TrEMBL record:
Function (record text): Exhibits S-adenosyl-L-methionine-dependent methyltransferase activity.
Presence of keyword Zinc: no
Coiled-coil residues: none
Organism of this sequence: Mycolicibacterium sphagni
The organism's place on the tree of life at top rank: Bacteria
Protein's recorded name: S-adenosyl-L-methionine-dependent methyltransferase
Claim: Nucleotide-binding is one of the keywords in the record: no
InterPro entries named among the record's database cross-references: Ppm1/Ppm2/Tcmp, SAM-dependent_MTases_sf, SAM_mthyl_Trfase_ML2640-like
Length: 301
């Protein structure tokens, strides 16, 4: 199952499955001793989606070490803990600096609008495909969860004219905004990634911020590693080839692109991020493929 221009999905199919996968990792990471993150909504959301392997993962019903030497799932959990904390800290820092508008691009099962301590008056927009937005919003409402900011959901494909839909939902482009693009870029075609940053730049007055991450070797090397990781997941009952979901081909490095378009950029490798949070970098296929990832923050000049 490879990608096509107007493909769509829910949280149990195609790219949507990856949102459930990372939420499962957040659920496991949240219950570890000395946890780096606390996402109490991840486990119930994953259960509600109902993909057997991820439900078992959040319920502790899989002996991951016995199935795959622990590498795939443990590395994913460690990486997600650090990545989640990086984006949490990004939004909290932006809030401390006075930013009161946030846009979470490709929000998936991210529960930040329900769990971060947003200052009063903050408006948070979540953008994702319609079925993803509807499922998460309905499930969290059924769980009795309430947003901790004014939440506005925006159902639109990020390959389409999403700024128009964002504006139609009340987005104020005169206000500094904190943007996140977490776990998104490789699921966009290279030209759509550039357009994404062009649109964000056009909607961002000085003082706006963005956080993202990307893999400098997002081409063949990552695809190979992902295929290997997918084989492990297949052994555990999940029929999903991750590398089929990425758009391959040359793409502009996010750091350079943002730096050339009016942003003051800072990039740190995944290994540096682990050190920053006092965690040991995991070993194994997945971690090798992700070790070059760069965590990027930028401020609009
Ligand atoms: C790996 S998940 C990451 C979800 C979330 N950011 C997180 O870290 O938990 C990828 C997300 O990107 C969304 N996505 C990918 N391509 C998209 C597109 N063209 N339009 C809207 N959403 C998209 C998917 O629906 C999915 O929720």
């Amino acid at each position: 199952m490879s990608r096509s221009d107007a493909d769509s999905w829910d949280l149990a199919t195609s790219v949507g499955t990856t949102a459930t996968m990372v939420a499962a990792a957040r659920a496991v990471a949240s219950r570890e001793d000395n946890a780096l993150i606390d996402d109490p909504f991840a486990a119930p959301l994953v259960r509600a989606v109902g993909i057997d392997i991820f439900t078992k993962m959040v319920d502790g019903d899989i002996d991951l070490a016995a199935v795959d030497t622990g590498d795939t799932a443990q590395a994913l959990t460690d990486v997600m803990a650090v990545r989640t904390r990086f984006f949490d800290d990004f939004f909290l820092d932006a809030a401390k600096a006075g930013v009161r508008q946030a846009v979470i691009l490709a929000s998936g099962l991210d529960s930040r609008p329900y769990r971060l301590d947003w200052p009063a008056g903050t408006v948070v927009y979540e953008i994702d495909q319609p079925q993803v937005i509807e499922f998460k919003t309905a499930t969290l409402a059924a769980l009795g969860a309430s947003p901790t900011a004014e939440l506005r959901t925006v159902s639109v494909d990020l390959r389409d004219d999403w700024p128009a839909t964002l504006r139609a939902n009340g987005f104020d482009e005169t206000k500094p905004t904190a943007w996140s693009a977490e776990g998104l870029l490789m699921y966009l075609p290279p030209d759509a990634q550039d357009r994404l940053f062009d649109n964000i730049t056009a909607l961002s007055p000085a003082g706006s911020r963005i956080a993202t991450e990307y893999h400098p070797d997002a081409g063949a090397a990552l695809a190979d590693r992902s295929a290997a990781v997918s084989d492990r997941w297949r052994d555990m009952g999940l029929d999903l080839n991750l590398s089929d979901l990425f758009y391959k081909g040359e793409r502009n490095p996010a750091i350079d692109y943002l730096a050339n378009h009016g942003w003051e950029v800072n990039g740190r490798s995944r290994v540096e991020m682990f050190a920053h949070y006092g965690r040991a970098f995991p070993t194994g296929d997945l971690s090798k493929s992700l070790s070059n990832s760069l965590s990027v923050t930028a401020i609009r000049k």
